[in-house]
């Protein structure tokens, strides 16, 4: 009897303490509730790595404070890989940042479902500043939930020097031309195409781009809602990739090569003239610059859009790209939105583009784009009939990861084009 | 460590099994004595003892509840939901996550990999470790140097080992270079990316990494065997191999069984080496994915926190069942200290 009561008491104490501990962890300071007119302090989470990008945000916050002395913005810079986990915890607790980097796609949908972000009501000026095309990818059911600052058109980055050495005079516009260029690059003993398949998504981007060419815009958008990949174009895209693999375009041992770390990574191979091309979004020049022997930008880096695929239903000019943006959490005061509006004005966008070496969304600020690869990308983007979000973002991580892994399987010779569709469909059940 | 508990249950079992003879009664006497009614003084003393036990074990119990039982219970709870980790889970799906796990082709694959690693770790590391320990137990020149060299891989962190090996084993890495320049070019291979080879590469690295630990355990086991036994056997004219087979191996039994237990649990939970070398996405393709990798890839990386928690529960149950079975059938004698006690 006594023994029983003792142990019950011990358990009760233990559970009580455990609950108390967790309750404590949940209770944070709730400093940002509802609209306020007086002095406000906002928290702002972003992921710029140290350097000009981080400096830009510091400067922007300072300028905004001098224009609106009642608004103080505290920046918290979080390392990219840690960002999503920390944000998720913060959003679930009551200490969410007011303004934060938004990845978009399935994650934004999940935040919306949990009621953690607010819809933004843009003025006509805001809309003109950002541009409707860029806003489209940050909207759900016609409402805008994030404001993008740059566009990230994807295409093939290549080394002009290696192309010249291989005797390639103009960039390929069709798959046949790309395949013959692969042969030419092999002849000068460099890897024609580098891909960091260890991270899965870089390999999967080949499939995405084939899908953009094969599937109509409508099919791709429908798939985002139903998460059913029944249209034959999805298999067709896999077959296109399988047929491209026949010319053996990728570097040796690509399966365990990472995309961005060290000279052996795919970006590192491009940076060190060991590979001719790499398919990437427009963060690539910055990554490559960090991996060249002198850690300076690669002088002969250039860009061309993904080649056309004969017989596809997608528009040949359509382009794949990421966007992301900045969202406001549920309880952020209206001053937070003012800061977002400020970030997309011309001067801020110019400074942003310079700091991040990227293409700003505000068309009036695009004059500051000077690097040849960014100019090519910008031209292709402005010419594009439409832009598709990266599929793993568009369809959510769950489906996206399954698709990425299935593409890696195909490339490694362990799966077929039909398996990509099958695995993707079955992943949709899990989440 | 779990001695009091082990003795208790073991004696309980024995008295149940062999009660008519009552041969076990003297041995169990100290453990069961307080159960009989005694004087009040004695009882008050017992209450005090209980309080003391509660106070002393309280912190440990609280830690255990807060950091082991509570998370396990939470994982079981989340496992019943379809949940992306934003907001509180609301979409109750019952056992659907478990149904999906058990029917998922990829999960069956990781089970195969995990069990293959487990079996081969035992088969490769066990005999090798015993042989090495026997060798290193002899008085040979450079013995301590060899001991250190064998133990070093175990001490190095998994991340360093993983990074090092993945650099050396790349298609244009050091190993292939060495093979090429020493005229063995035909042996070159894609050690990491060839799906037919990768699992064997992994098993090689795992064996290299963890054998040091096995050797140290075996050496300690060997040193605890009294020398007199060997001397007596030698006087009786036993050969070296007879001594090893009839004396060393049986007396090393408890050590071997404990090592095997640790090795099994370690294999079932293998994560870091695979994560560093192959990463969560490619390991399935390369054929080296383990249960823990599957959990991270399908749970955290895919944003399916409900599904991921269900995988954690399945992993927990598999490890628990294996551990319980092993304790019940293999470690039973060790836990009751039968080796030195002698069996009647």
Automatic annotation (TrEMBL), chain A:
Residues 1-20 form the signal peptide. InterPro entries: Bact_solute-bd_prot1, SBP. It comes from the Bacteria. It holds the Pfam family SBP_bac_1. The keyword Thylakoid does not apply. PROSITE patterns: PROKAR_LIPOPROTEIN. Keywords: Signal. The keyword Signal applies. This is Carbohydrate ABC transporter substrate-binding protein, CUT1 family. It comes from Actinacidiphila rubida.
From TrEMBL, chain B:
GO terms for biological process: transmembrane transport. InterPro entries: ABC_transporter_permease, MetI-like, MetI-like_sf. Residues 1-10 have a biased composition (Polar residues). The chain crosses the membrane at residues 53-80, 115-136, 148-168, 197-220, 256-278, 305-326. Residues 1-41 are annotated as: Disordered. The keyword Calcium does not apply. It is found in: Cell membrane. One of its GO terms (cellular component) is plasma membrane. It is a multi-pass membrane protein. It holds the Pfam family BPD_transp_1. CDD domains: TM_PBP2. This is Carbohydrate ABC transporter membrane protein 1, CUT1 family. It comes from Actinacidiphila rubida.
């Amino acid at each position: 009897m006594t023994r029983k009561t003792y142990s019950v008491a011990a358990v009760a104490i233990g559970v009580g303490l455990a609950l108390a501990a967790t309750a404590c962890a949940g209770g944070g300071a709730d400093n940002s509730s509802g609209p306020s007119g007086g002095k406000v302090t906002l928290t702002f989470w972003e992921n710029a790595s140290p350097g000009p990008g981080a400096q830009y945000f510091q400067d922007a916050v300072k300028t905004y404070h001098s224009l609106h002395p009642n608004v103080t913005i505290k920046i918290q810079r979080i390392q990219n890989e840690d960002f999503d986990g920390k944000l998720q915890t913060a959003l679930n607790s009551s200490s969410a940042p007011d303004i934060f980097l938004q990845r978009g796609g399935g994650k934004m949908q999940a935040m919306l479902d949990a009621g953690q972000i607010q819809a933004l009501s843009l003025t006509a000026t805001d809309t003109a500043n950002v541009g409707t095309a860029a806003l489209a990818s940050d909207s759900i059911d016609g409402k805008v939930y994030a404001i993008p600052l740059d566009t990230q058109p994807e295409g093939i980055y290549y080394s002009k020097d290696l192309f010249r050495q291989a005797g390639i005079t103009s960039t390929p516009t069709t798959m046949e031309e790309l395949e013959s260029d692969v042969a030419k690059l092999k002849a000068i003993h460099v890897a024609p195409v580098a891909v960091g398949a260890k991270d899965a998504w870089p390999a999967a981007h080949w499939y995405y781009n084939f899908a953009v060419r094969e599937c109509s815009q409508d099919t791709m958008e429908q798939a985002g809602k139903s998460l059913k990949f029944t249209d034959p174009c999805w298999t067709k895209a896999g077959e296109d990739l399988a047929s491209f693999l026949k010319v053996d375009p990728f570097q040796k041992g690509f399966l365990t090569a990472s995309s961005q770390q060290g000279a052996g990574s795919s970006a590192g191979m491009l940076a060190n003239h060991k590979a001719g091309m790499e398919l990437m979004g427009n963060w690539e020049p910055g990554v490559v610059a960090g991996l060249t022997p002198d850690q300076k930008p690669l002088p002969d880096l250039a860009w061309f859009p993904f080649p056309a695929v004969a017989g596809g239903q997608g528009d040949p000019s359509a382009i794949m790209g990421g966007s992301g943006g900045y969202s406001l959490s549920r309880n952020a005061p209206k001053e937070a939105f003012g800061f977002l509006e400020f970030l997309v004005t011309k001067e801020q966008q110019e400074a942003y583009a310079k700091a991040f070496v990227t293409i700003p969304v505000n068309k009036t600020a695009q004059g500051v784009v000077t690097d040849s690869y960014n100019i090519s990308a910008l031209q292709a983007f402005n010419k594009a009939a439409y832009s598709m979000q990266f599929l793993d973002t568009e369809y959510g991580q769950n489906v996206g990861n399954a698709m990425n892994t299935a593409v890696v399987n195909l490339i490694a010779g362990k799966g077929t084009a039909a398996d990509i569709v099958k695995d993707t469909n079955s992943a949709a059940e899990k989440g | 460590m779990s001695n009091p508990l082990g003795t208790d249950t073991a004696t309980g079992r024995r008295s149940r099994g062999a009660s008519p003879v009552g041969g076990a009664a003297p041995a169990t006497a100290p453990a069961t004595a307080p159960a009989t009614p005694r004087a009040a003084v004695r009882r008050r003393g017992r209450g005090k003892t209980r309080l003391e036990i509660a106070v002393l074990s309280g912190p440990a119990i609280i830690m255990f509840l807060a950091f082991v039982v509570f998370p396990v219970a939470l994982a079981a709870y989340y496992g019943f939901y379809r949940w992306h980790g934003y907001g509180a889970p609301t979409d109750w799906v019952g056992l659907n996550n478990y149904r999906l796990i058990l029917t998922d082709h990829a999960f069956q694959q990781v089970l195969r990999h995990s069990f293959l690693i487990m079996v081969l770790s035992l088969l490769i590391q066990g005999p090798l470790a015993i042989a090495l320990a026997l060798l290193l137990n002899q008085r040979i020149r450079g013995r301590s140097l060899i001991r250190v060299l064998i133990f070093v891989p175990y001490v190095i962190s998994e991340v360093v080992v993983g990074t090092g090996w993945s650099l050396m084993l790349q298609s244009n890495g050091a190993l292939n270079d060495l093979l090429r320049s020493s005229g063995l070019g035909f042996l070159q291979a894609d050690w990491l990316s060839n799906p037919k080879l990768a699992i064997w590469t992994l098993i090689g690295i795992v064996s290299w990494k963890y054998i040091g630990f096995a050797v140290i355990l075996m050496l300690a086991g060997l040193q605890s065997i009294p020398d007199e036994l060997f001397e007596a056997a030698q006087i009786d004219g036993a050969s070296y191999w007879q001594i090893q087979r009839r004396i060393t191996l049986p007396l090393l039994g408890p050590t071997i069984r404990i090592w095997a237990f640790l090795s099994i649990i370690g294999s079932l939970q293998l994560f870091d080496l695979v994560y560093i070398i192959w990463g969560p996405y490619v390991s399935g393709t390369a054929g080296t994915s383990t249960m823990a990798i599957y959990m991270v890839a399908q749970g955290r990386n895919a944003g399916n926190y409900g599904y991921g928690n269900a995988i954690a529960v399945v992993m927990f149950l598999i490890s628990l069942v294996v551990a319980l079975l092993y304790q019940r059938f293999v470690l039973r004698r060790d836990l009751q200290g039968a080796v030195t006690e002698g069996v009647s």
